[in-house]
Design brief:
- The protein has about 325 residues and is an alpha/beta fold.
- It has a single domain, classed as 3-Layer(aba) Sandwich (UDP-N-acetylmuramoyl-L-alanine:D-glutamate ligase).
- Helices cover about 40% and strands about 20% of the residues.
- It contains eleven helices and 14 strands.
- The chain has an eight-stranded mixed beta sheet with strand order 4-1-9-10-11-12-13-14, with helices on both faces. It has a four-stranded mixed beta sheet with strand order 3-2-7-8. It has a two-stranded parallel ribbon with strand order 5-6.
- A hairpin with a 5-residue loop joins strand 2 and strand 3.
- Helix 1 crosses helix 8 and helix 8 runs antiparallel to helix 10.
- It is globular.
Amino acid sequence: MLTVCGELVADLIVRDDGTLLPVPGGSPANTAFAAARLGLGVQFLGRFGDDLFGEAAWTRLREAGVDLTGSVSASERSTLAVATTDSEGHARYAFWTQGTADWQWTDAELAGAPAPATRAVHTASVASWTPPGAAAILGLLTRGRAAGMLVSYDPNVRPPLLGGESRAIISAMISQAGLVKVSDEDLAALHPGQPPLTTARQWLALGPSAVVVTAGADGATVLRPDHHPLSVAAPPVAVVDTIGAGDTFTAGLIAALLGHVGEATNAAARLRELDDAAWSQALASAATAAAITCSRAGCDPPTQDELAAELAQQG
């Protein structure tokens, strides 16, 4: 089972006629949704806002087969994000976050997680580096790492929301992760003027077994201790928009890596043993899943069968 913890955001997508289309979103919730479509057993730990947006997010995840045991019905309102896309389909967001549900995690709310059956734990984005709840999420990752689970992290930064403590919290999250997935845009935002792979190597020194850098249409590169960088190309695709593409990549990568790790009792240790062939397959699978999502409007990730069919066509 994969346990995902973090925010669920109501995306208000600006349509061509200027009206807003509300759809459930949020990076961690999208990853849980995508992973369930890809056939993983998924538990999502979220704080669902006390409004129609929270109800819609709950319904979307439950209907996808995601286990919501451990989630919180919060008294606060949902976080909102207005999403616009440019001529190439790249999404940009403006957020309404003040006092919303996603950032209020307590140690008590996450005390029972991760469950013993969990093989991988993932967190991402704003909830992971926003106080006060980030400290409780860090405790979740720490417990997962101590239990030998595959701990995955994607900082998925939103520069306007980064607070004074955010960079230190991100570093602490990286130090507990076995797998870090990060976009080249995020690396540039956190360390302006420094080549993304240079920053990724610095992050690798903090303790992860692998740092995967995504670069949109230019593919993805994995950095590992004592290995040369390994890159895969992104499949060509007619982009409708990029909403949820990075989250789908993460879900596809975790699904593929868990397939290679097998039923090892210490998934984190097994991750360090994977060879170039396994990593090439995992990256290609993740990139293909993300490409399929880019070919559709909104976060509409592929099913396990759809991804398998596309990979078979690629040969």
